[in-house]
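quick q for whoever's on today - can somebody do inverse folding on this one?? i tried earlier but teh output was garbage lol. tokens:
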């Protein structure tokens, strides 16, 4: 498997955006590996350079917080079964197979910890859709279908201690005590991280972020 630095990854993304038909690029990695920020920065640079690119993150398909609480799943939010995976697959299928349609995808708002429906527009002229999320390479249904819809999928990596530090800081920022943040980081989040790391071999490339 090839390892790419950000510059080489950017050139590969340009190739996808200019191949003549709509492509979908997946970016995955463990929690707090930086995939969301990287996907946002990559998309912004491509758009600034004149390419027609849209970012459709998997996080928009979180089950609503009220639903998670009703089902007793709030404490494991972020695990595969706390997403509408089939809905996400359906959207990627439409993005791939119906490029002439104006499509609208949901966006996850961290300020309210919930999704907002139909808030990301993907116009027919978009030639590259970037999607990012934890489970793009997960080998179980409905997630396994995603790999067949992606032209490429990259797995992003950062040093583990940095990733853990980011996770703890994120949990504290959203109101958890230092003890709760540590427990979540090395509990539910770590189990998810190991599950995601086991899918890395299916990626087209590893992108090592600073």
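ok took a stab at it. sequence:
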């Amino acid at each position: 498997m090839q390892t790419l630095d950000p510059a080489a990854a950017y050139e590969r993304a340009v190739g996808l955006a200019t191949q003549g038909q709509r492509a979908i690029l997946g970016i995955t990695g463990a929690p707090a590996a930086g995939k969301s920020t990287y996907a946002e920065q990559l998309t912004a640079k491509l758009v600034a350079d004149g390419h027609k690119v849209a970012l459709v993150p998997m996080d928009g398909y979180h089950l609503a917080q009220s639903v998670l609480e009703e089902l007793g799943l709030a404490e494991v939010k972020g695990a595969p079964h706390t997403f509408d995976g089939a809905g996400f697959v359906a959207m990627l299928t439409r993005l791939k197979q119906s490029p002439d349609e104006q499509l609208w995808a949901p966006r996850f708002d961290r300020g309210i910890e919930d999704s907002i429906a139909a808030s990301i527009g993907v116009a027919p002229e978009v030639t590259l859709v970037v999607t990012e999320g934890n489970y793009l390479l997960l080998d179980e249904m409905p997630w396994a279908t995603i790999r067949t819809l992606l032209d490429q999928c990259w797995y992003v990596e950062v040093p583990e201690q940095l990733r853990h530090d980011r996770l703890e800081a994120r949990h504290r920022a959203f109101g958890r005590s230092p003890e709760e943040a540590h427990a979540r980081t090395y509990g539910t989040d770590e189990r998810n991280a190991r599950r995601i790391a086991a899918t890395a071999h299916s990626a087209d490339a590893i992108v090592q972020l600073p």
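fwiw Strands lie at 2-4, 23-28, 53-55, 103-109, 114-122, 128-132, 152-157, 205-208. also The chain has one domain: 2-208. so keep that in mind when u check it
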